[in-house]
From TrEMBL, chain A:
Taxonomy, superkingdom: Eukaryota
Designated name of the protein: F-box domain-containing protein
Gene responsible for this protein: Cnig_chr_III.g11230
Organism expressing this protein natively: Caenorhabditis nigoni
Residue span, F-box domain: 5-53
PANTHER family, sorted: CYCLIN-RELATED F-BOX FAMILY (PTHR22899), F-BOX ASSOCIATED DOMAIN-CONTAINING PROTEIN-RELATED (PTHR22899:SF0)
Automatic annotation (TrEMBL), chain B:
Name used for this protein in its record: Skp1-related protein
Entries under InterPro entries matching the protein: SKP1, SKP1-like, SKP1-like_dim_sf, SKP1/BTB/POZ_sf, Skp1_comp_dimer, Skp1_comp_POZ
Organism for this UniProt entry: Caenorhabditis nigoni
Record field: compositional bias (Basic and acidic residues): 165-177
Feature: compositional bias, Low complexity: 8-25, 178-188
Family of the protein in this entry: Belongs to the SKP1 family.
UniProt keywords, alphabetically: Ubl conjugation pathway
Pfam families named in the record: Skp1 (PF01466), Skp1_POZ (PF03931)
GO biological process: protein ubiquitination; ubiquitin-dependent protein catabolic process
Taxonomic classification: Eukaryota, Metazoa, Ecdysozoa, Nematoda, Chromadorea
Amino acid sequence: MSNSKFPFPRLPDDICSEVLKTMEYHEIIAFSIISKKSSSMVQSLCLPLIRAQIVMGWPEICLDFGSINVLFKWKMGENDKEMTSLDDIPVSVAVKFRRFNPISESKTFTWSNQGKNIGEWVQHLRSIFRCGCYEATFCVLNTRLDIQSLRNTFPKFRKIVIMCLRNEPTEHEVQSIGNILRAFLPYVENLRLQRVPLQENLSIQHIGMTNLKELHLESLNLKLGDLSTLNVEKCIIIRIQFSLLDLNRFFKLWTKGSYPKLQSLLVHGSLESFSDWNILLKGLNAVVERSTADDSQRLVKVKRFIMENSRGVCAQVLVHSAEMVSAVTFTVSNLNRLSPEIWKF
Amino acid sequence: MSSTEQGTSSAAPAEPTTAPESAAAPEVPESFYYVHGKDKVVHKVSAGALQHSALIHGMISNLGYTEEQAKANPFPFENIDGDILQMVVDWCNQHKGKPTPPEDTNLPKQKEKLFDLVLAVNYLEIKELLTYCCKQVAMMVKGKSPEEIREIWMIPTDAEDEAAEKEAKKRAGKEAAGETAAAAGDAK
């Protein structure tokens, strides 16, 4: 190809669109960044995007087109520097194009920052594709995110993960976490909180009241007893310290009709004491599986029982407990408590 | 294969080839049509080759020209350069009655020529060739950064676009004012 130039804007619009359609996604994105006109030309193609996964902190966005994905990874400075706000301007961006089918192929390019800050990059990328599924991971470290710029920059997320990277987060970090939750909690289906400090203005009661499909909690100061309201379908709680009494209270609330949407619960952590199973079963009217062998000598104790709530819904509970770690699985079943199949879990 | 009736000597006159037919089938003589571009050089093309062009195919399908009539009335494409039309005719002849391959390496490598070819092919509505041309245009920016794409494809900046838009508005305003003045003069 000779070095002379090609007057692309002088081509008829429909030809421009045809040319763009033959290009790879990262090339289309590169074209869209050039000018407002080129951006609107790409927008008019209405290109579908299956899923966009955004990571803030060490910012990146993965655009999933099916058998192809394009990963944008912004470099914020030397020594793997993190971003602090959406106004931060990256040094450069690494663009990784990956094809999985029919043959695996991967190419990485380095682009300049295009004079855009992180917020503008995200806004641009979400403006040029039609995507119904956005997911985000916020790694909170020295982060300052205000509610308005969060709402202006990001779409409604289906899934959010918030990871607090400091044992004792700063005031700004706590405020940023609160802002993220306030901005997106009404729309999110799947929420995961990792090491997020739960406080008065950011309590588990607030989160539990939200309509969620899945809630994943990993918190240092969470108490099972705080889960008085839980409006989720699936709940996973890990790294928690709990007692048989806490579990008993939780299940008792369920049998009385609380947590009506709950389909499954997994609690994984340290069980304070598991010497007296009667504490767990007290008042539940549960049917306990008859133990076939004496497990008093076993390292891992297993307890299986079924219980029924006030609306006749049956749940299977499986408790594994050992010295260091215990796991409780609660699953709502469609089966009748008298069905022999109910014990197959 | 095309035959150049006048002008350039590059293309030697040649009779179009006809597809082999079974001995039992009656021999149907292939009809030919004539086209010329800006340079008035007339190209003889078979109806089969011209089927690639939806525009020409639409024009000729109901004409029922005899060889003499077709020769006397070449289709004029004054907006297409002679060498570009030659390329188009050659491509149509090469791909006459054949399935088009996924890639075409015979397209011009010079960007100026490719631009004219794209416009001509678009005008003549040759779908397959247009697809090749679009791929060729896209290939120019394969793996390029936004800055490189801007340079290769001569994409103006937002400021340049705005300035051009202002200029166009100004020009349109002046033209409208000129027309109004002329209309007023006529009325007097």
